[in-house]
Structures are given as structure tokens and as C-alpha cells.
Amino acid sequence: MQSGETDVVAVYSGVCKVNAAVAAQILIDAFHTDVIINAGTAGGIDERVQLFDTIIGDRMIYHDVADDILTEFHPWLMENAFHADPALYTAARKYAGSLPCPVLFGTMVTGEQFIEDEKRAEIREKSAPLSVDMETAAVAHVCYVNRIPFLCVRSITDTAEHSEIDNFDRNCETASARAAEVTIGILKMI
Terminus-to-terminus CA distance in the chain, angstroms? Predict the structure, then answer.
């Protein structure tokens, strides 16, 4: 590798927590990754979040796992959340300041379901997240157990105002491209 270059391995994990966790563990075991950045799409939960905003997680929480499971059992967390690596998070904040598109920083939640209107209020009340997806906390969990620095970048495909799976389908390509662009920018910062 030449000075200023970074080797990158990209993996398409598929949807849901187990697929994402398997992909993360493969990256760690087969490629001996130093850092994992999980990039993709998410649904906006916070009312301030708009279509195609990019969210970078500082805390990642499962919304479909009992609060005491990860504190009372392996990996014995101090709280029911995984946290972004401080150095990666700082690089993301620095890069975000140069972008013309909105980048928000905060809590992300993960669960095995597409969130429709009836679940939004419950999730907002419990965790106050900016976004919800089906993979982030699982990848953060694998990284935590393996002591691998982690960051998540997600761009929004649907919101309370623009809900339903049709919005996800219609907006997925544009949101994915935005998340990839932001991820590449962050990689250049580190």
C-alpha cells in the first residue's frame, strides 16, 4: 500500500441482524479488519429527520431486545447501548462539516421489522433515536465483542410523513448512494 491509501473490503450482508452479524464476523476473521464502518439505509424516527438525511450513530440500541439481556448476560454492557468509536466519530463530525447535505448525529435503533406508524411512538419514547434499521446494532455488537472500532452511516429512505415500504423501495438507491459517498469521505479523513 502506498502512503495515503487505505485497503477497503466491501461486503453486502443482506437484510436483518443475523446476516449483518455474520458479515461483520467474516470481515474480522477472514480479512483481519482494523475498523468496520456499517453503511446503508434506515428509516427516520425523529420528526426532524427528512428523506435522504444522513445519520451517523453515536449510540446503537436494539429496540426488540429486553433492556437487561445485554447488561445481565454476555457481553455485560454497562448500559443497553453500543457506542461508536471516538476517533471514527470525530472524523465523521469533521467530514460532515464540509458537506452541503444534512448529516445528523445521534442514537440509532435496530430490530427485525420494518417500522410502520404504530411502532414509531413507542420506539421514540423508549430510546429517542434518529433512525431505525435492521442491522446496525448487530454489527456494533460483533465489533464490541471483538474489540474492533465501529461507526455507522445510514441515509434515510422513509419517515413518518413518507412511510410505507413503497417509499423505501423508491428511495433506496439514492439513499444508498448518499451513505456510500459519506462513508468514502470519512475513510479519506482517517
Answer: 15
Cβ–Cβ < 8 Å for 5, 11: no
Three-state DSSP state, 90? helix
Whether the ω angle into residue 75 lies within 30 degrees of 0, i.e. cis, is: yes
β partners of residue 165? none
pTM: 0.91
Round to whole Å and give the CA distance between 63 and 123: 7
Q: What confidence tens digit (pLDDT) does each residue in 94-132 have?
A: 999 999 889 999 999 999 877 766 788 888 888 899 999
For residues 161 and 148, the answer to whether their CB atoms sit within 8 Å is no
CB contact at 8 A, 102 and 6: no
Q: What is the pLDDT of residues 56-102, one digit of tens each?
A: 999 999 999 998 999 999 999 999 999 999 999 999 999 999 998 89
Which grid cell sits at 56? 451517523
Q: How far is CA 95 from CA 41, 104, 115, 146, in A?
A: 19, 12, 30, 27
d(CA 42, CA 134): 8
Cα–Cα distance, 155 to 111 (Å, whole number): 17
